[in-house]
Amino acid sequence: MTIPRPHRDDVLICVAGFLGGLLLWLLRLDSHPGQGLPAPRWLALVPLAAASGATLLRRTMPRTALVIGCLALTADQFLTVGSIATIGLFTDLVYAAVLYGSPADARRIPVLSEVGTAVVTVTALVVYQDAEAVLFGLVFGLITVAPAWTGISVRNHRDAAEAATLRAEQTALLAELDRTQAVTAERARMARELHDMVANHLSAIAIHSTAALSLDDPRTTRDALSVIRENSVDGLAEMRRLIGLLREGGEDAEPTASPTLSGLDALLAQARTNGASSGLEFALDDDRTPGLPLPAPVELAAYRIVQESLTNALKHASPGEVSVALAQDAKSFTVRVTSPYGDQGERPGPRAPGSGAGLVGMRERVALLDGRFESGPATAADGTKIWHVRAWLPVEEGNSSS
Q1: Of 282, 274, 280, which Cα lies nearest the Cα of 211?
Q2: Is the CB of residue 244 less than 8 Å from the CB of residue 250?
Q3: CB hemisphere CA count around 345 (13 angstroms)
Q4: Sign of CA dihedral 217, 220, 226, 228
Q5: Is residue 388 within 8 Å of residue 338, measured between CB atoms?
Q6: Are 339 and 278 spatial neighbours (Cβ–Cβ below 8 Å)?
């Protein structure tokens, strides 16, 4: 078995204890001199050396060190003239056994020291038949009970400090995780808002700028440039509002209100202008029951879903009608947008490329509200192919928009 390397402080205790005991031995300062023991006086250095050597194991093997210390103390007291240094080293071994030993040893050693003190006191009274024999028990308690309970106190404080440090580290870790999640969520929210607010305008600009470049018709070019200018101005205003919201403190930002479903008419009117050259028509079927409250987060999500769906229709839909349908009951709000899909005739206007981020953003918005979302190709009642987007958003009572 490999003996662990002793701690530096334990080596210092070993050397200091042995040298101190050697000095006391040279000065003849024994713990109980003149008892007429047959053993030579130098024999007291053997228990001293054993107790000093045991201190090298006080941290790495505390139980073994205490056993060696007990044997050394017994030999020192009953076979030699005794050394105060050996007694001092023994008390340190008791203290170290409680402090560095196993939890079971930390519980047992104080109890054993108390029982041992009681046994020594009673035995001394029986043997010497003198009240002064109580002093034996008192001395035994000082070298066993006192260091054991001191070790208990220090160990409890150390464990409490370690537990506090662990809690602080865990709290810091949880705080960092919360901060990271909050930053990630905020970045995702900003990405959705930026995409939803600007993609519609940029898609229209891309479509009409392509038309202006590809068609050699002054009127078409002028109309396209008018649409491009309108969408550029609107997009710039949206960007300024977003930048104002993101600016630190927001002191320079003008108060802005979240878009509501009351603005769908204007949104569809803009889509009609942007999609006229592509053969697209837009219709709104609002089947909501008047007077039912709608939570602000649900209303914002519904507006953004319609906005992104119209943008996707401008980019990809075949000529035909794009339909927006709204429905609401006491428990849910439903948004459904359908657009022509597939080869249904040559689309006269140009198309803008897509990245797929719009569908991801819509799905995330619905998931944040614990709703359901589906999108993809389907077949209408008349057999034509369509692309449909449908979102079910739960309506929570008491969270209505004002």
Answers
A1: 274
A2: yes
A3: 12
A4: negative
A5: yes
A6: no
Q: Which residue bears the tokens 């865990």? A: 170
pLDDT of residue 400: 43
Shortest CA distance to 376 belongs to which of 359, 352, 354?
359
Q: Any idea which residue has 């034996």 for tokens?
A: 136
| Domain membership of residue 377 as a residue range | 257-402
Q: Scanning the structure block, which residue is given the tokens 């006086």?
A: 41
Residue that the structure tokens 């891309």 belong to: 206
User: Amino acid identity of 94?
Assistant: V
User: Quick check: 58 and 101 in contact, CB under 8 A?
Assistant: no
Report which of 283, 368, 358 is spatially closest to residue 326, judged by C-alpha positions: 283
pLDDT of residue 11: 94
Shared domain check, 401 and 262: yes
Q: Do 133 and 270 have their domain in common?
A: no
CA distance 20 to 86: 10
Distance CA 210, CA 229 (A): 14
What residue type is assigned to position 80 of the chain? T
Task: Tell me whether residue 229 is in a domain.
Answer: no
Model pLDDT, residue 351: 52
Return all residues near 347 (Cβ < 8 A) that are at least 6 apart.
278, 279, 318, 319
Secondary structure of residue 325 in the 3-state scheme: strand
Nearest to 4 by CA among 71, 50, 58: 58
Q: Specify the CATH number for the domain of residue 284.
A: 3.30.565.10
- Output the pLDDT for position 398: 44
Q: Which two tokens stand for residue 328?
A: 């609401």
The CA distance from 324 to 339, in Å, is: 9
How confident is the model at residue 275, as a pLDDT? 79
* β-sheet with 385-394: strand ranges across: 280-286, 320-328, 332-340, 385-394, 372-379
Say how far apart CA 338 and CA 341 lie, in whole Å.
9
Q: What's the confidence (pLDDT) of residue 35?
A: 59
Tell me which DSSP letter residue 327 carries: E
Averages of pLDDT over each 10 residues, the chain, 402 residues: 82 95 91 69 92 94 94 91 93 95 93 92 86 85 94 94 91 87 78 68 71 70 74 71 61 58 86 80 86 83 88 83 89 91 56 63 86 89 87 71 39
Give the C-alpha separation, 231 to 237, whole Å. 10
